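Re: your question from the hallway

Yes, I did run it. Sequences:
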Amino acid sequence: MDSDWLLSILERANRIASSSQLDDLLGQMLDLVIDVCEAKAAALCLFDCQAGEMVCRVVRGVENSQKLTGKRIKIERSLAGKTLAQRGPILIEDLDASQIDPIEIGLPDLKRALSIPLWLHDELFGVVQVFNFVNPEIQIVQLLGNRMASELDKALLIQASEQRSERFKALIDIIGRIGSSLDRDQILKMIIESARQLLNAEAGSLFLVDEVTGELVLHFATNIPPEQWPSVRVPPDKGIIGYVARTGETVLVPDTQKDDRYYSNVAQNVGFETRSILAVPLRTRQVYLGGERGSSEERIIGGLEALNKANGTFDAEDAVLLETFANQAATVFQIASLYANTEELFIDVVRAMTAAIDAKDPYTEGHSERVSDFAVAIARELDLKTELIYHIRIAGLLHDVGKIGISDNVLKKPGQLNMEEFEEIKKHPKIGERIMREVRMLQTELAGISQHHEWVDGTGYPSGLCGEGLSLTGRIIAVADVFDAITSDRPYRAAQPANMVLDHLRAETGSHFDRACVEALVRAFQNGMIRVQGEPL
Amino acid sequence: MDSDWLLSILERANRIASSSQLDDLLGQMLDLVIDVCEAKAAALCLFDCQAGEMVCRVVRGVENSQKLTGKRIKIERSLAGKTLAQRGPILIEDLDASQIDPIEIGLPDLKRALSIPLWLHDELFGVVQVFNFVNPEIQIVQLLGNRMASELDKALLIQASEQRSERFKALIDIIGRIGSSLDRDQILKMIIESARQLLNAEAGSLFLVDEVTGELVLHFATNIPPEQWPSVRVPPDKGIIGYVARTGETVLVPDTQKDDRYYSNVAQNVGFETRSILAVPLRTRQVYLGGERGSSEERIIGGLEALNKANGTFDAEDAVLLETFANQAATVFQIASLYANTEELFIDVVRAMTAAIDAKDPYTEGHSERVSDFAVAIARELDLKTELIYHIRIAGLLHDVGKIGISDNVLKKPGQLNMEEFEEIKKHPKIGERIMREVRMLQTELAGISQHHEWVDGTGYPSGLCGEGLSLTGRIIAVADVFDAITSDRPYRAAQPANMVLDHLRAETGSHFDRACVEALVRAFQNGMIRVQGEPL
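Structure:
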């Protein structure tokens, strides 16, 4: 062997190895093997020790060689298997006569074959094979084969690391999307779909702890029809999900048939075959509420399951990823719950207090709640922005809050009010505005409180506003207010039918009421969006 | 050259290259070079094209060779520089006589030197140098040198990818920690500290848009004393931060002296030298509030700056990382703001409505607010949990809400109440409980409303509760309520001094009032935690 020739080959190998395209690199390296041996074809096969098979990685020198990539060969009786068993090179002069199955590489007249085992970190890694060659340059092929093994190894390291990066990036994006919702149902839906996507799982399900019974109740599942979700209740001492929520541990079950914690009732009911499960707890962090509110407690609110990994089995890296995701997602859910609770508390307290004010006079019982509903219906028909509709709901509830400052004699008087009494009751919009003036977050609503007895021609009270001076909120609540008043009984007259009242309001558009608001109310009524007092449910 | 010898060398090189320890790999490869050339020493130097210098990567064959790692050599007149210029191997028989500075590797009698340039992806990468050798095996050294370059290249790829993974992991952790706070100040503090840490920056600052003036107001800075923060206000059309918040673009300024957007007023004031800046907008995502609330708008609420990267300059990867982080952090801040707004709205509305109820009788003006403060002071002295203290604050505000249902004649009566009137006013705890009964989130507070006129010996009203039947909230508010009543003027008597009232309450512990609650109130008073009506501010 000429050493200059050898050096030139190895220089070529170095140049090939500097490629960052792995397939290209391996292909060119096999071409070099073919040149060195003056061969027809060459192949690189890798050992899949789990399956006990060899997998074709690259083949060169035959037609349609790309089709052979991924081809699997049973170890027994194959040339690759024999090479692995022998732990050294095999050279065969006549493959046909050898009683050894070659790789079916589709090469005509397959005769001479050289098969060399490759080691990496002291483990068998694969074989490099050369067919119908002139020079059996075993040492050089071994050298080039080892180089391919080493390059493959490093490429896989880079690939794995980049995949990890990509998954983290995806996780960050998902957490960002989930974290920008305060809607609990939407959050749960996003959690389950994201988990499935992150882990490449066939299905996913999410259980929340029922705080009363301790059972795990199915809240979302991609493999079960929604109508069946609420009926799937797992006792806290049963099933993998029960175990996860009870202990806070992650559970990886590669084969559900072999794990006796598997609670098959659920699966049997829905006809979905669960082969493997990765289950993690949904554990909220301690949420710091700030100032004198302190922190909410860390706790397990449920569990998350990924079912049947597509193309493979769940591994430890999947488990860490799903745990990380579940903890973040649970905290987002917890924050949305805190928000929803405060929101509910606020609306319910306002509702309770205004209802109490209404209830001082039996004739106005439920009035504020109905005005609020009518005002919202008008606002929706006017296609207003959701944030404004929310303000209108609150303004509707609070429009008569000033009645706190009106004396009982006037408020509860069974008959018609006299002039003086009427002058007193006319103060309630101003009083209401004064009560709420200091509430920074309620500035939009003030107009609804102070202007709900103004008329569009400027003949209303307390300020005689008209035109641009009269806010949309004020106009809407004025219509809603009078509509409820006339469709309700009063000490001095009976409730009027809604249709008649709407005609009356229409007749007074332009003078008393805003035309667009009245027409919106008419449409809302016609569309069945509102119900007046005394109407059957 | 013997080809078997050559093959054995290359096999050894392959084995060395399979190491995943880069330093070890390069060192062993240089040892192989030394063996091949029968040399005294060898070195691998890498080309730093930005600095125009060579950097010693590994040296073998001399004492204290590890100290030479990282040593920098100017290109001009050095052997390495000459090699790069020549783009080919240089062999020198007598280095002393050559007028070329060698690397100062501390080798005695430095004579023969071989210096070979290394290429990677068609670019000059570095040089491998061999000293005081017997055999100048240029081709083999070139081969081994190229192999080192290739392995270094791949190792750097793996390292970069793993660093990216680590940074994403750190980012996920940071987002999780920030995302578990609803306290805006804490969130801002965490944002700035995390940003600095993520980017290895010397300092960081965070600006928020003033919604009225549009100016960018400094809210946190690690390089400026807190008392100066509020005075740092950047006009929206000035400075890098103004540009970022206005355009939503990321700005990377490697040298502030060369960027005319740099607004040096701030830096000059505080004596911090800003060399480089990475500035990103704080852009909130659209937050979905759920149901009829719809979504809040996406918008830029401010900007974030990382100043002076320690050991280097900010790069594009830093920019992407900080952008990603800033978007998530801004959304977390937005959610905390939404929560704080709802919380403020709720407390303010309750305060306004209860104040209006109190104000019906001029003698009880501000009563509920004071009772709430006193009750909280007692709860704090009793070292209760923050969540319970929050409930007690609300219960204190709402304790007299039942007065909505008491007629004005009784409520506003200028003199002492008669028996019948007293019976009516005694209904207010029950009425209050009834008003709030439907509010799911207020169940803890109900006891404070219904039991604030119960006495510990069972002689109070409305239910005559005592012992275990009387809740802690009820006991606390009972003490706070009577303390405010007696320290306030009434139509039938003047306000009593606080000290006297506390003595009176002490005398009635065990019969009327809970001893622990009264003692807690005494302590709170002595510690200056509460102020009674009429006391100077």
